Amino acid sequence: MSAPSMTLLHNPASPFVRKVRVLLYETGQQDRVALQAVLVTPVNPAAELNQGNPVGKIPALRLADGNVLHDSRVILDYFDHQHVGNPLIPREGSARWRRLTLASMADGIMDAAVLMRYETALRPPDKHWDQWLEEQRNKIRRTLAELERDAIAELTSHFDVAAISVACALGYLDFRHPDMQWRLDNPRLAAWYAEVSQRPSMLETQPPV
Ligand code: BEZ
Questions:
Q1: In this structure, are residues 142 and 186 in contact, taking their beta carbons and an 8 Å threshold?
Q2: I need a labelling partner for 76 at 20 to 30 A (CA). Which of 8, 32, 143, 205 fits?
Q3: How far is Cα 111 from Cα 103, in angstroms, rounded to an integer?
């Protein structure tokens, strides 16, 4: 097999990166992409990441011609157009908008959870903004409650962009915010996640210990 012509600038802890890696595994494309780790935080930017990606998004995909695609939603769409199996992002119709909306809910959980991680891991404890942290937790709780109430059958029906995104969001909560104990109020989501987290794509992309 020839060397990969594309490079995914990534951080193995990022749930946004994990979505892309899971889709690559699920569609058999993992060998098409070289992984390049970039250690970056909001207060420690990386010059290599900012080339063609001035906001410094992670993940970013450097193509063979040097162009850079970002963010994770664009990269998912790109790779979903590059395999011959059933699309993991429906191409049209109401299914497209519903599945992308479920994926957006999962992205919202990730956004809140990553911001909480930055607030607690990077800022000095005496500068933590407790009310802001609680509102991020509330966003996550509300979104999980809606998924628990309305979306279990849809998540169970295929492991597509919606299910991949929700699975990566839950994996990140376990990784960085186990204190939230999200399973207590969401038993159906917990049962669904217990199953999908055993897929080879999820096992291969677990965050570092
Ligand atoms: C983390 O360490 O939790 C993290 C790192 C990069 C992006 C998002 C999260």
A1: no
A2: 143
A3: 12
**CA of residue 49 to ligand 1 center, whole Å:** 15
Question: pTM for the whole thing?
Answer: 0.97
Higher pLDDT, 2 or 114: 114
120 alpha carbon – ligand 1 mean position (Å) = 12
* CA 58 to ligand 1: nearest atom: 7
Residues within a 6 A CB radius of ligand 1: 11, 13-14, 58, 114, 117, 176
* Nearest CA residue ID for atom 2, ligand 1: 13
The minimum-distance atom of ligand 1 relative to the CA of 176 is 3
Annotate the chain with DSSP letters as a single string: -PPPSEEEEE-TT-HHHHHHHHHHHHTT-GGGEEEEE---BTTB--HHHHTT-TT--SSEEE-TTS-EE-SHHHHHHHHHTS-SS--SS--SHHHHHHHHHHHHHHHHHHHHHHHHHHHHHHS-GGG--HHHHHHHHHHHHHHHHHHHHH-HHHHHH--SHHHHHHHHHHHHHHHH-GGG-TTTT-HHHHHHHHHHTTSHHHHHTPPP-
- For the chain, domains (ranges, CATH) are 6-80 (3.40.30.10), 93-199 (1.20.1050.10)
**Angle 130-150/187-196 helices, nearest 10 degrees?**
80
